[in-house]
Design goal:
alpha/beta, 41% helix, single chain
């Protein structure tokens, strides 16, 4: 995958300029595209649009891809490409939508650049975009084909079989297809659930499958999002909290996600905070069945023990395995928390924990939390290549 020599020279000369206006251009892009194609508001996460995360993620992805094309020493872009493709497949993105995105994205760059947007610059960045788009289209077509999903009809009806209240704001839904089997999936993947909201909009949200592969059902664990600092409450999580009861039928996508439990005997270190416990719960359920002797270390941070979702399930799995140790940190009430191992007070501190040699690390939680945890683990000698992470929302 290479740029033409003419475009490569132009992109090298203008990459810094385009990177500098990328955030502004993507804001213009989304505004113009949604005005012309309001039906796409049902595909894109409007909450991420409102707080600005999605435009920044798109801008960063396109610029990073351009750098990958012009700099032989740039990091491999393949993992980023695969992560984006999985997100798109869970949302039912189609090849035809790339035509719309390309038109308005490149048009927005031209608007922001103004008179500086020469035909040569426009042609070069058009080439960048279509190399990016065709690579994603090909990867997404493969993912759709693997499970037999028609991208024009990406959702299947699932019925809520059971509901479990995990804490005041967290609940689990056991889902089973209305017809046909549960598609095969890898431990650590997620699904999108799309709901029709009272204001007439349809919105998807992605939720980790918090159970291991079961064959007849899957479990998702959802935190009801409460707005802070003036931000609105979560619309989809709030709707599900109020309405998703046994018997409710929901539209659910095929499982997707590239951060998965690999077949291996290596020790595992699982690091999570808050609702980031969901992929950890899936991994532990799977391991307790298939590899009960595998070495695992669990490190979790939460506000209180009462906020620690899925704790009872995890406790059973820890007791069922031969070489698992867990350490929890609670901001409040750690001294009296009824945990299997004594909890620590305050925020997670991994500087003095014992880590098994040559461990693979899985992390999930707020981005600042994972940045802190990654830094601490690398200071203890864990390689960057051994640390895998899942981000809820656009990957910044």
């Amino acid at each position: 995958m290479k740029l033409s020599p003419e475009s490569e020279a132009v992109v090298k000369a203008t990459a810094d300029v385009v990177a500098g206006i990328a955030d502004e251009a993507t804001v213009v892009f989304y505004r113009d595209m949604f005005e012309a194609h309001p039906e796409l508001l049902n595909v894109f996460n409007q909450a991420n649009q409102a707080i600005g995360e999605q435009p920044k993620a798109l801008a960063a992805s396109v610029v990073a891809f351009a750098v990958h094309l012009i700099d032989p020493d740039a990091p491999d872009f393949t993992p980023v490409m695969q992560r984006i493709a999985h997100k798109h497949v869970s949302l039912g993105i189609t090849a035809s939508q790339y035509l719309i995105v390309g038109r308005y994205l490149l048009g927005a760059v031209a608007k922001v650049l103004g008179d500086a947007a020469t035909p040569e610059i426009a042609a070069a960045w058009d080439e960048v975009y279509w190399l990016f788009a065709t690579a994603l289209i090909a990867e997404e077509a493969k993912l759709y084909a693997e499970v037999g999903t028609d991208p024009e009809a990406p959702y299947r009806p699932y019925r809520v079989v059971e509901r479990f209240e995990e804490s005041d704001e967290v609940f689990s839904l056991l889902l089973s297809p209305v017809s046909g089997p549960v598609p095969s999936h890898y431990t650590g993947q997620y699904v999108s659930i799309a709901v029709d909201l009272p204001d007439g909009y349809r919105q998807p949200r992605q939720y980790t499958i918090s159970s291991g592969p079961r064959g007849d059902s899957l479990r998702v664990t959802i935190k009801r999002v409460r707005g802070v600092d003036g931000a609105p409450d979560g619309r989809v999580s709030g709707w599900l909290y109020e309405n998703a009861t046994p018997g409710t039928v929901l539209d659910v996508s095929q499982p997707a996600g590239d951060v998965i439990l690999q077949d291996s005997d290596k020790p595992l270190v699982l690091v999570s905070a808050g609702i980031g416990i969901t992929p950890v719960a899936a991994i532990m359920e799977d391991l307790s069945r298939r590899q009960p002797d595998r070495t695992v270390r669990l490190f979790h941070a939460d506000k209180t023990h009462a906020h620690h979702a899925l704790y009872a399930n995890l406790r059973r799995q820890v007791l069922a395995m031969s070489d698992v140790k867990a350490q929890n940190w609670y901001e409040e009430g750690a001294e009296t928390a009824p945990t299997l191992y004594p909890a620590r007070s305050g925020f997670m501190d991994l500087s003095d924990v014992e880590l098994p040699a040559e461990a693979e690390v899985f992390m999930c939680g707020p981005l600042p939390f994972m940045q802190m945890a990654r830094k601490s683990l690398m200071e203890q000698g864990v390689s960057a290549e051994s640390i895998h992470y899942e981000v809820f929302g656009p990957d910044m």
